[in-house]
Amino acid sequence: MNPLALIGQLVLSLLQTVGELTLFAARAIFQGMAGPYYPRAILRQMIDIGYYSLPVVGLTAIFTGMVLALQSHTGFSRFEAQSAVATIVVLSMTRELGPVLAGLMVAGRVGASMAAELGTMRVTEQIDALTTLSTNPFKYLVWPRVLAGFLMLPLLVLVADIIGVLGGYLVGVYKLGFGPLEYLNRTFDYLETEDVVSGLVKAAIFGFLVALMGCYHGYKSRGGAQGVGAATTMAVVSASILILTANYIVTEVFFSS
Amino acid sequence: MTDSAAQPKIRIRGLKKSFGKKHILRGIDLDVGKGESVVVIGGSGTGKSVLLKCILGILDPDEGTIEIDGVDVTKASRSQREEVMHKFGMLFQGAALFDSLPVWENVAFGLLQVDRLGRDEAKKKAIETLAQVGLGADVADLSPAELSGGMQKRVGLARAIARRPEILFFDEPTTGLDPIMADVINDLIAHSVRELGASAISITHDMASARKIADRVTMLYKGELIWDGKVSEIDNSGNPYVDQFINGHADGPIELDVRAA
């Protein structure tokens, strides 16, 4: 095949996917907000994303906080700046690692499960059945998931921030020899509201993206078990890439302001 | 003003649908009267499911009109479309039960989400509807995965009739069932359609099913309706395609497509 034609095809295909995804997101938001609402479906998704993701996000956060304390101590001790360990841990967790790692873990756990669930519903005609029961699938399936992702990931990240700081505290106090009060003082001395808020804003965006990609790939899946498998993979991969991309953009916006 | 007595419940004119270069429906004209049960027969890949999905609004046709009680749903506003959808009940080939919900919530789905009935009242109605299809209250709290194929079809039928629809659709209702269970489902379908006074469109390639549930039979071949007549006339249709299909002969004018539509 002509290489130029191939490049053209790839660009067109990318543009088509971006267009479809944008329309899908707009339909989910506008149709979902217009009601009717399904409180039980929304609550179920909030529990699934928020409550059931706590163990995996908590474990990620505590080990990340512990490793951060060890690594920053190793680095900063080379120029006698070990006292910055607590500050580094809290800033890294709240501004960056809390939202990004929680987002990636939720993409793996929840995004994949959403794509698999909606994909199976698609290939077994359950989504068509919803339509015949006068129920809009965007309002009943997509909006509750997207809304729950948007609302619950900031809460998860808040918990992850606290657990991450706790991990740093445990290593700082029991391994690196900081005094408990000293470590806590250094944690909060340089922490500003914006550090936490920027992380929570990122988390809300990541939660939206994870749920959107899970729903989009599940909803569009075709071709039986293989199609559902491919949709699940695509949901996780695309959500992860979008999280990392959006992370830079949001950081840039907060950094500039 | 349209004469409502003469107006068919469903009127389809010039319906066309293609996927890429593949023309699935090539200009379908079909009327279904009030209380009439029409069965569309035809081999795999002839466009039966696409026809049904176009009527249900799951697929948008490329050309043609689909009138339900005089309302052309291909041009209707969203609110008109939703009003028309309230008249529908559908039994899917694989039952398409929601596996995240127990049986009674599947049956009561429309009552809960559309009619906004309370959960207690909806469950009571669901159990009554389950009884109509020969299932006891003991299955109400089971998950669909715990049911046999025949029971899933019955639950699917109960879900389709729970809101007492004016129009029922059946997609291959007996596929995958043993002959006895297939006959039970056919009887239930015929009884439900009669009891509701509903119009019905069924698609099937099971001739025993077609003979049992149809008032009228029409045959779809290569995207066109090639024969239409009363079920009693089907054995003397004089159409070689119909004769080959209903007798299940390998030799004849029908060419088998090996690829799915």
Describe the protein.
The complex is a heterodimer of chains A (257) and B (261). Chain A has helices at 3-34, 39-51, 54-76, 85-123, 126-132, 137-174, 180-189, 193-219, 224-256. Chain A is mainly alpha-helical and 257 residues long. Chain A is elongated. Chain B is 33% helix and 24% strand. Chain B has a 6-stranded mixed sheet with strand order 6-7-8-3-9-10, with helices on both faces. A 4-stranded antiparallel sheet of chain B has the order 2-1-4-5, covered by helices on one side. Chain B is an alpha/beta fold and 261 residues long. In chain B, a hairpin with a 2-residue loop joins strand 4 (63-68) and strand 5 (71-72). Chain B contains 9 helices and 10 strands. Chain B is globular and about 55 Å long. Chain B has helices spanning 48-56, 78-85, 103-107, 109-113, 119-132, 149-161, 179-196, 207-213, 240-247, and strands at residues 10-19, 22-32, 37-41, 63-68, 71-72, 88-91, 167-171, 199-204, 216-221, 224-230. The model of chain B has no long low-confidence stretch (mean pLDDT 89). In chain B, helix 5 (119-132) packs across helix 6.
How do the strands and helices of this protein lay out in sequence?
The complex is a heterodimer of chains A (257) and B (261).
Chain A lengths: L2 H32 L4 H13 L2 H23 L8 H39 L2 H7 L4 H38 L5 H10 L3 H27 L4 H33 L1
Helix pairs in contact in A: 1-6, 2-6, 3-4, 3-6, 4-6, 4-7, 4-8, 4-9, 6-7, 6-8, 8-9
Chain B lengths: L9 E10 L2 E11 L4 E5 L6 H9 L6 E6 L2 E2 L5 H8 L2 E4 L11 H5 L1 H5 L5 H14 L16 H13 L5 E5 L7 H18 L2 E6 L2 H7 L2 E6 L2 E7 L9 H8 L14
Parallel strand pairs in B: 3-8, 3-9, 6-7, 7-8
Antiparallel strand pairs in B: 1-2, 1-4, 4-5, 9-10
Helix pairs in contact in B: 5-6, 6-7, 7-8
